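ok trying again, last paste got cut off:
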Amino acid sequence: MKKIPYGMSNFRAMREEGYLYVDKTMYIEKIENLNSKYLFFIRPRRFGKSLFLSTLENYYDINNEKDFEKLFGDLYIGKNPTKLKNSYMILKLNFSGLNTENKDQLKESFLLSVKNSINALLGRYEGILENTEEIRKKIDQITDINAVIMTIINEVKKVGKKIYLIIDEYDHFANDIIAMGESEFYREIVRASGFVRDFYETLKIGAESVIDRIFITGISPIMLDDLTSGFNIALNVTMDLNLNEMLGFTEEEVVKILEEVGIEEKEKSLEELKELYDGYLFSAEAEKRIYNPDMVLYYLDSIVRYKKPPRNLIDDNVKTDYGRLNRLTMNEENKALLERIIKEEGIVAEIVTKFSFDRMYDEEYFISLLFYMGLLTIERQEKTRLFLKIPNYVIKTIMWEYIETNLKKEYKINLDLNELRKTIEEMAYEGRIKPYIEYISQNVLKVLSNRDIINFDEKYIKVILITYLVNSKAYRPISERETEGGYIDIYLERDIRIPDIKYEWLIELKYVKKSEKDKVDKIKEEGIKQLKRYRESKGLKERKDVKQALIIFIGKDEYQVIEV
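nice, full thing came through this time. structure:
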């Protein structure tokens, strides 16, 4: 059985040490055949970018020719090699982890990062370049970033070779600066005579002679617009139809992975992985949706090692990355917009392919940023625009936790978690839902309504009810589950991590204004019929211990619970 390469991004190590490797090498051929030699490609964090760059590095490195068969022989590109294989010197830059405390510190750490990468190149190609020790000493004395780049360009030119330039995390430091709210700091380094802009202008000069190909990755197009005049040679292929599946796993690939790592209950695992981590679409014309690769491997690593799913369905490293969500909603407009997206589970919008920093907090730019971060994805074409939806259950939990954090911070809603947990346990083990509804009504909904800050409706109440259930791990709340009888407002499915939960729940939510209280009896009748239809639908009819509840909220401080 293949070993699971969770957290690994070193192509050579994976191939030499018997790790699972999903063959994406056919995309080397595809990107080589594109019209542009200089490519810009964005995907969410932890989506396989670094591994793909490592694959490119090993394929094109002039020093790896003797190892080509060992590394690539049984892969697509090994059987269909391109004319450019093993024909470049590789210069790989990574701009994560730079010091963004101030402009001088950033410039110094940027310079050091570039120098370290060039020293790695000098070490790798000692047998090709002349006098590498002298070049190293010369570079060590240089304090200008562009002079460092030009020095290595000139040295490579002397020996008649070409460079394949790979830049990983191109926007990492910019995103940190923006998240800190340092707009002036950002402008100083990226615009006009900023050193970042000058750096990319130097690369453009290098592309006229020695730098033959460039591949740049990051998580957002945040600097593209600001760098345009200084670096207007890169083709943005992020939403290219033919590259939709270049990173991440298709369903066919996940099925194959389950076989290769020895998962016994393949169908059950596939169903689970699909709900948790699938759903991404990066081109409106593409047909295959993509699973988050990091999350799939994280989940399977737990299944293989412990014979059970991970206690937390999302890796803490990824969760930390999405902490940026709170920083992006510091202004009221974005906060209200995000709440609307969570409530509606999506939004109609157009994706902006280049960002201007000055308009980053405009609605269309903010929504596009959520798309690039992986918090929204393409669902379908809607007239002239796209309907973007929350891709999967795990991302929904991040959204719901955002709501909880925001309520705690903004409205001082600090619940007694022990009391809350007791009400959830009553629902799960004793089949009584009213204590939970009462607790949320008294401690959350009334606090919000007293401040008169939200428009109460079924969808907002639904988000609140789900939000406080997520971290209990007793249930997996499914919003708007489709059945032949219609869409269930909330289906509380037993969470596989706590399999002894006795009762599942079908919940139908209704909301009426106080002025329309006379309609309650009719609404009650309709709601009960709906619940009975849902219970008889395929997939639910056979399930045991599924209880049904109709919850009618009347105004902001009254409710009825009818168990069917």
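cool. The first strand starts at residue 38 and ends at 42. Residues 103-124 form the longest helix (22 residues).
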